[in-house]
Amino acid sequence: MTLLDGKQTAETIKEEIAAEVEAIKAAHGKVPHLAAILVGNDGGSQTYVNNKVLACERVGFDSTLIRMEDSITEEELLEKIEELNNDANVDGFIVQLPLPKHIDTEKVLEAVNPSKDVDGFHPTNVGRMVAGLKAFLPATPYGILQLLERYQIETKGKHCVVIGRSNIVGSPMSILMAKNAYPGNCTVTICHRHTENLAQFTKQADILIAAVGIPEFVKADMVKDGAVVIDVGTTRVPDTTRKAGYKLKGDVLFDEVAPKCSFITPVPGGVGPLTIAMLLKNTLSAAKKEVYHN
Ligand SMILES: NC(=O)C1=CN([C@@H]2O[C@H](COP(=O)(O)OP(=O)(O)OC[C@H]3O[C@@H](n4cnc5c(N)ncnc54)[C@H](OP(=O)(O)O)[C@@H]3O)[C@@H](O)[C@H]2O)C=CC1
Ligand SMILES: Nc1nc(=O)c2c([nH]1)NC[C@@H]1CN(c3ccc(C(=O)N[C@@H](CCC(=O)O)C(=O)O)cc3)C=[N+]21
Predict the structure, then answer these.
(1) Between the chain's N and C termini, which has fewer beta carbons within 10 Å?
(2) Which are the catalytic amino acids?
(3) CB-ligand 1 contact for 236 (6 Å cutoff)
């Protein structure tokens, strides 16, 4: 069993980005700039956004964190987005999810100019991805592709089973794994809440990607010997013995499943750090106008 070290892979990617930033700075005197909007003070969201800002500093980007109260109106948020759309100084920005219930997430994501949508959540980027055009790829699926590629894992002709069909992870992941590309060329099965006899499908997976959000959901008897297992789940489970007050748990019962695998990602230190690295990569692409040439 080989551990897919997301933390180390993310470090490597960030070093590659930092080197490019140096070159851009020398040539243009300007560095890529990522902005993030955080609405409210959900603990997990704060951690992720802070990690993103710290990662920007690490690679030499400019970053701006915009905090808004839970109680803001949808209009106020849309105004802020318009401001960032029009700010020539900002190359890309994200609106951290989830948003408070009184705000229409779809409307908010559609308000982001696709050329600055480094999360890849705007329908234009989703459509372009599906059509195989240049697009900002959502950071988590993009990070998983990087992991498969950098560990040179064979994907062609393999059966990839994805558990979860969310717009930010499961759906784009399944689309990308079925593409005529490397990593890709898989036969893909998408499972969700209404899948009957889930284990019957997961047991057939050469590559199993779990993006469910239920801690330790995938047990050893659901996994084929020699499978590649990618654990996207990151659920905070209360743990009073820890300083942070919680423990991060993946969707896979790691101790039981890992011995059966050819490759597996840990949680933490697996997919999460790569998500952040690929957000930076998208921001670099935005600054270089590699996707949209406006
Ligand atoms: N490491 C990282 O970088 C990231 C981690 N995450 C983590 O990944 C997990 C998933 O995130 P996200 O996709 O946003 O979550 P969502 O809650 O949006 O989606 C969860 C998916 O799991 C499916 N599901 C729920 N219960 C079952 C079940 N019993 N059997 C089969 N399928 C089920 C749901 O099905 P249905 O559609 O039918 O409701 C849904 O499609 C979370 O733990 C999240 O924190 C998310 C983003 C990035
Ligand atoms: N607009 C938007 N874009 C996102 O990309 C987005 C989002 N909203 N909402 C929430 C999810 C979740 N997500 C994670 C990012 C990093 C880690 C990460 O770095 N995890 C570390 C541990 C961090 C910790 O200690 O909690 C690890 O797995 O090693 C996890 C999860 C991005 N998301």
Answers:
(1) C
(2) 52, 96, 119
(3) no
